């Protein structure tokens, strides 16, 4: 069998198949930890069949699935993923590739094949593209319905953290969590965290050190001794003194350095918090219907928020070519 280097396939740390709630969550967790993630999204979608999603947290009057899908893709992109509109046709494991090469080759409907170190399946309806990675009996289940025999991907094939008997293959969906959007997203997050921990373990971390949280914290909470890096080093040493790796080894020092960097990088100051708040509001506003925004806030509030010169110029010119506050045109 040819290796990805021989086929010229682009290489990714992680390929996620599907950008529904499960795939988006998995991709965001993996990319936020610095993994190079590509998400392919096309084909049959459960979410697209939902008329209006009213039980997903954070949307008081529900959310239409078109807007939610746009938001999820945008979130994955902002986290650093390449989100590509393409269908995964098959995933093959290149059995004899050496350890330094990604073991999977992902074949797409349109694009060039992609080599991946890890693959996360997140496609509620479809597991066909995984056929051949393991025995059919293990991956698929057959049942009779109305006198006909049907074969489906086995929702219990993967463990709850998405790991499977195939090293490097994870399944976020189909799973026993895929019947509601929020539980599918939760499963995706859990699988994304597992992938992050496994990538760290490959990089020399040990399991207890590799499991972490993806939190963003206020610098104001970094009080007293914890503002000092040495205190974190001390904490790490105490936590892992009896762990599997010699505390005097170079490996221990390297992982400690990375873990402390990681912890300290999770703190943001008040200016950064304000900047992220503004960026978050803007990303939401970009996807809202302008009429709904006017309806919700009233014209006075919106005119008050606008640059006076832009409003005057718009009134004077009375049209879409009036200059905007940023110097562009409408
Ligand atoms: C009619 C209906 C109404 C529903 N209403 C609700 C509701 O009100 N509330 C609720 O919580 N849940 C509802 N659900 C369930 C909800 O849609 C699912 O729980 C949720 O969408 C599962 O998320 P997922 O990410 O696992 O899969 P999906 O939402 O199916 O996302 C999978 C993604 O993968 C892509 N994909 C598929 N195959 C491939 C491939 N080979 N290559 C690349 N991409 C691929 C698809 O295009 C899709 O974007 C409803 C489902 C249906 C059918």
TrEMBL record:
Signal peptide: none annotated. Pfam families: Pyr_redox_2. Keywords: Flavoprotein, Oxidoreductase. Residues 13-123 form the FAD/NAD(P)-binding domain. Gene3D superfamilies: FAD/NAD(P)-binding domain. GO terms for molecular function: oxidoreductase activity. This is Thioredoxin reductase.
């Amino acid at each position: 069998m040819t290796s990805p280097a021989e086929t010229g396939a682009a290489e990714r740390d992680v390929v996620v198949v599907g950008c529904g709630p499960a795939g988006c969550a998995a991709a965001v967790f993996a990319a936020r930890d610095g993994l190079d993630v590509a998400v392919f999204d096309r084909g049959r979608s459960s979410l697209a069949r939902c008329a209006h999603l009213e039980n997903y947290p954070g949307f008081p009057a529900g959310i239409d699935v078109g807007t939610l899908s746009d938001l999820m893709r945008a979130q994955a992109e902002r986290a650093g993923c390449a989100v590509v509109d393409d269908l995964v046709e098959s995933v093959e494991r290149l059995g004899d590739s050496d350890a330094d090469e990604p073991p999977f080759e992902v074949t797409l409907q349109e694009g060039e094949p992609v080599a991946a170190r890890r693959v996360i399946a997140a496609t509620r309806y479809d597991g066909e593209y995984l056929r051949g990675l393991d025995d059919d009996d293990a991956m698929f289940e057959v049942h009779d319905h109305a006198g006909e025999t049907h074969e489906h991907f086995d929702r219990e094939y993967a463990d709850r953290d998405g790991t499977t008997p195939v090293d490097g293959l994870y399944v976020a969906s189909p799973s026993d969590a895929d019947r509601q959007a929020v539980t599918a997203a939760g499963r995706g997050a859990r699988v994304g965290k597992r992938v992050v921990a496994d990538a760290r373990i490959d990089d020399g971390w040990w399991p207890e050190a590799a499991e972490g949280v993806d939190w963003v914290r206020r610098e104001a909470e970094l009080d007293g001794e914890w503002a000092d890096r040495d205190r974190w080093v001390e904490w790490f040493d105490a936590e892992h003194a009896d762990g599997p790796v010699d505390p005097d080894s170079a490996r221990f020092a390297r992982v400690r350095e990375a873990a402390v960097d990681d912890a300290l990088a999770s703190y943001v100051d008040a200016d950064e918090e304000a900047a992220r708040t503004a960026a978050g509001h803007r990303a939401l506003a970009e996807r809202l219907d302008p009429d709904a925004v006017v309806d919700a806030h009233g014209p006075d509030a919106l005119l008050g928020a606008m640059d006076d010169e832009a409003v005057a110029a718009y009134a004077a010119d009375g049209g879409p070519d009036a200059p905007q506050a940023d110097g562009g045109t409408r």
